[in-house]
Amino acid sequence: MNNQKNDFFGGRKLLIASKHKKESVIKPLLEEHLGVLCETVENFDTDIFGTFSGETERKDDPLTTVKKKCEKAMQSFGFDLAVASEGSFGPHPSFFFISADDELLILIDAKNKFEITAREISTATNFNGKFFENEDDVKKFAEQVLFPSHALIVRQSRETNDHLIKGITNWDDLIHHFYHFKNKYGRAFIETDMRAMNNPTRMSVIKKATEQLIQKINSACAQCGAPGFDISTINRGLPCDWCGAPTNGILSYLYQCKKCGYQKEEMYPHNKTKADPGSCNFCNP
């Protein structure tokens, strides 16, 4: 692909739509590699789109949510260029027994009428939560999930949102709140605080997603020069090395420009023209 720095963004103001200090990792990278001037605003409440602790339910899928977040920020504060991110936590999509952090990052350029997304899925996460009745067990769990550098939440239960304490970052407060909930409810539910400013591990994944976004932006369309010339379709059907039947292996990538629609197909992107017979439904049913 045509990888180059482009002049779509140089000197423009870019809004980072974040309430949770994500600009600490996003801003330096975007300013260095795109030449933009990043800004944040104090009074943009991203929690209206959903909270990890459950007080506000996320009503849309992550991609719709991050797009709405970015567009709302642009409309509210008069920017034509903005970036927003959205994280999701749960089982890894391929390895269900492992927790994962799934970070989506979107750049929307209203002036040039295109958007570019990047996604980073990482097993580097401390995402966890359990009920506790014993102080020693609380301490073991806290150490396991990297407390106190990573904040914790104490609450009545995972399902109850009317009584919870977020952003706990020291041992005295943790033990105090544990006993308060234990004395009142018989036990306490303690979970990781996944807000970016309270979770350095998550912040590092957001940084990787930002690096991916920059790489995509710097992949320019050969026809119009617009950034974000990226894979739009993955075509499977790589032929089996023994029988020639199509397999689930990747045959080609189809790249498409988000601005002019120009397309280009890259055959055999992994430098393999034949698939291992072990992946063939005929040779290895």
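(the above was protein one; protein two follows)
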Amino acid sequence: MQQKGDLNMTEAPTRILLVEDEPEVRMIAEGILASSGYAVTAAANGAEALASMDAVRPDLILSDIRMPVVDGFQLLQKIRADPVWHQTPFIILSARAESADLRMGMSLGADDYVTKPYRAQDILKTIEIRVQRARQVSEAIAGNQRFLTRVLPHELRTPLMGVIGYADLMVDTANEGKTLTPAELAEYGRMLQMSGARIFRIVENLLFWSRLERPRDAPGGTGSPWRVDEVVNAGVLRDVGSGVAAQFGRAQDLVVECPVGATVQVVTTGFEFVAHHLLENAFKCSLPNSAVKIAAAKEAKVLRVSVSDSGRGMTPQQIEWIGNFKKLSGVGSEGHGLGMGLMLASTFARASGGQFAVKAGPGGRGIEVTMSLPLAPDAAAN
């Protein structure tokens, strides 16, 4: 049977640094953790723990408060002040009667606490929750880094090169003592407008992304995400779709299917923003006089929204790359990458508690992007 300390049979066990000055208590805790699949390193005080950090590289620290040399508070402060280890989950152990110690520990940045004497199931459950939370944070950080280093530079490079290129032409013309003709001024101005609009759109995307990454807490400080209700019906889909189709001069290619509208509960207002992105991608990836369809239908407790086209499609590798936010070069008819729009849609769906998927169309032609968004409680009950 898989142990709690293992994510799977091939991954190394979670490393825990146990800091406890009482030998008997330390031995009992070490046995509990080791028998549950964790790799445990024990230290008798905070000084020993600090000296072992580089060698152990713990995934989590479990520490007593009252200890000689360097106590638990001092250890916690040093860990939180260290740029390498400051995000390491830290659980404090304290006697039930020492509530002031618990408050102090939490104010210094402890992630959780377990009161002594503790039961094995209590400490294991607390560790399991904190390790899982830390891994989710690490995955989010890694995803953000991939986005910032792989997608964003490519998205910005093209419009910025347009701005710089036409500015250079204007400067060169002036340096030669010449003036631009009205037709040239109109052309340069139009191209600068287009590049500026693309940069503005990227800024809007970043602002939306920041809202997805840091959802607001519910009123009253409950700590639960504040969900927003949005109505999705044929009129909404048609309005968004018509606007995008007009950009490409392809009003005749738009197909809208939505037999019944519904109210979805999402992490932040943004369904139309995301749908706009998905439709833009579909039009970019397909040729005029081929259908681009947006459809929505209720399924159990979710609204399934799909955008599909019949263009050149993607290879299985390109579809897999979407999850890594890589640049999908050469996919669109204009050569634009699709990473940012798909990343925003994926994050929007998953942050709302739904799902996101991309698959090839029939016969490998085109792609279908699907978001499953949770229905609002009243809508789900109907």
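Reviewer note on protein two: The first strand starts at residue 15 and ends at 19.
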